[in-house]
């Protein structure tokens, strides 16, 4: 029987870790869909809600090709800051627990992450089971040609992009008189550019194009080879469980994997600080799970039985 419309998710789904452990034990194929909340305990900001502002800008308004075209220096300052923060941060126990699950389950586990912070890559998570659908902050690509640089961990990424507080503040002061920039305000042609594009990093291949962060921005297509790998995994067999971890599940196509997993037979287990805005993972059923709290604390408890405590590695894998 369908619950009445007004009944919230969390009144229906199970919140029992013991029941979850039972499902985990019998699940042959598990997929995880991860978002910014997974890295929140590592000190990295989320995109929406409380952590969604960078200075006076909505983080999501800076993640578009239009924003880069209008003011590449501003977008680079934002990404320079995020690269710096991600390099300073450390993977948390949530990332390590997922890495253990991946090692234990082999092909029976796939982790789809929207995160571009590189933290999962710094755990012993087998790389073939980690699908970076929004790419990473540490790849650079050319805005004009097909040039791509992999694993650039320079901080700052370019001498023109020092991220110290004082110089960023000074540069932003000239950017706009509008203290609450939104996408429309800062696409206003009258707004001056934050940094002269001539000073910004340029492509070594075509020489005229600007380098940009290698992440997927709004309106851009996702990496086709990664999408194909994900589709192939789903097509192999039924899926028993999807873990929806620290994501508002509001951005497609990523959020669509919840429905796809359900169509393949999966129960849903949500791990989120906020139980009320679960995007595509709303409408939880009696057979689903909802764990409210910090992913870094909950995941080690949830995945406890599957992990070999003696061998569990929390040793960080350093960047090259
Ligand atoms: N533990 C678990 N969940 C948390 C925690 C935490 N410590 N802190 C925050 N959350 C939850 C929030 O309640 C929210 O539901 O994490 C979610 C973060 O949501 P978003 O900020 O929307 O991040 P995400 O879902 O990853 O965004 C998707 O949007 O901007 C684009 O490309 C960007 O990959 C990103 C995509
Ligand atoms: Zn180029």
UniProtKB/TrEMBL annotation:
Keywords: Metal-binding, NAD, Transferase, Zinc. Gene3D superfamilies: SIR2/SIRT2 'Small Domain, TPP-binding domain. One of its GO terms (molecular function) is protein-succinyllysine desuccinylase activity. One of its GO terms (cellular component) is nucleus. Transmembrane segments: none annotated. The active site is at 134 (proton acceptor). Signal peptide: none annotated. Coiled coil: none annotated. Residues 10-320 form the Deacetylase sirtuin-type domain. Zn(2+) binds at residues 142, 145, 203, 206. It comes from the Eukaryota. Pfam families: SIR2 (PF02146). Belongs to the sirtuin family. Class I subfamily. PANTHER family: NAD-DEPENDENT PROTEIN DEACYLASE SIRTUIN-5, MITOCHONDRIAL-RELATED. This is DHS-like NAD/FAD-binding domain-containing protein. It comes from Amylocarpus encephaloides.
């Amino acid at each position: 029987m369908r619950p009445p419309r007004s009944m919230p998710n969390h009144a229906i789904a199970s919140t029992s870790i013991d029941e979850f452990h039972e499902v985990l034990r019998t699940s042959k194929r598990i997929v995880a869909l991860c978002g910014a909340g997974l890295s929140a305990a590592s000190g990295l900001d989320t995109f929406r809600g409380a952590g969604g502002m960078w200075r006076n800008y909505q983080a999501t308004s800076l993640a578009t090709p239009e924003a880069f075209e209008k003011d590449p220096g501003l977008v680079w300052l934002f990404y320079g800051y995020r690269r710096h923060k991600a390099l300073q941060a450390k993977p948390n126990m949530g990332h390590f627990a997922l890495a253990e699950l991946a090692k234990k389950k082999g092909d029976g586990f796939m982790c789809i992450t929207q995160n571009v912070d590189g933290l999962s890559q710094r755990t012993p998570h087998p790389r073939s089971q980690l699908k970076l659908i929004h790419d990473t902050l540490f790849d650079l690509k050319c805005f004009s040609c097909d040039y791509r640089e992999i694993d650039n961990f320079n901080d700052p990424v370019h001498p023109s992009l020092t991220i110290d507080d004082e110089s960023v503040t000074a540069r932003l002061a000239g950017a706009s008189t509008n203290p609450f920039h939104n996408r429309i305000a800062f696409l206003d042609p009258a707004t001056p550019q934050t940094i002269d594009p001539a000073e910004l990093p340029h492509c070594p291949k075509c020489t005229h194009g600007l380098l940009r962060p290698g992440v997927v921005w709004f309106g851009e297509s996702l990496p086709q080879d990664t999408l194909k790998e994900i589709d192939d995994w789903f097509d192999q067999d039924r899926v028993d469980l999807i873990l929806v971890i620290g994501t508002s599940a509001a951005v497609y196509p990523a959020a669509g994997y919840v429905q796809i997993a359900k169509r393949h037979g999966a129960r849903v287990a949500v791990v989120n600080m906020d139980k009320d805005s679960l995007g595509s993972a709303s409408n939880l059923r009696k057979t689903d799970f909802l764990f409210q709290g910090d992913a870094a604390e909950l995941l080690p408890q949830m995945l406890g039985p599957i992990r070999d405590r003696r061998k569990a590695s929390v040793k960080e894998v350093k960047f090259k």
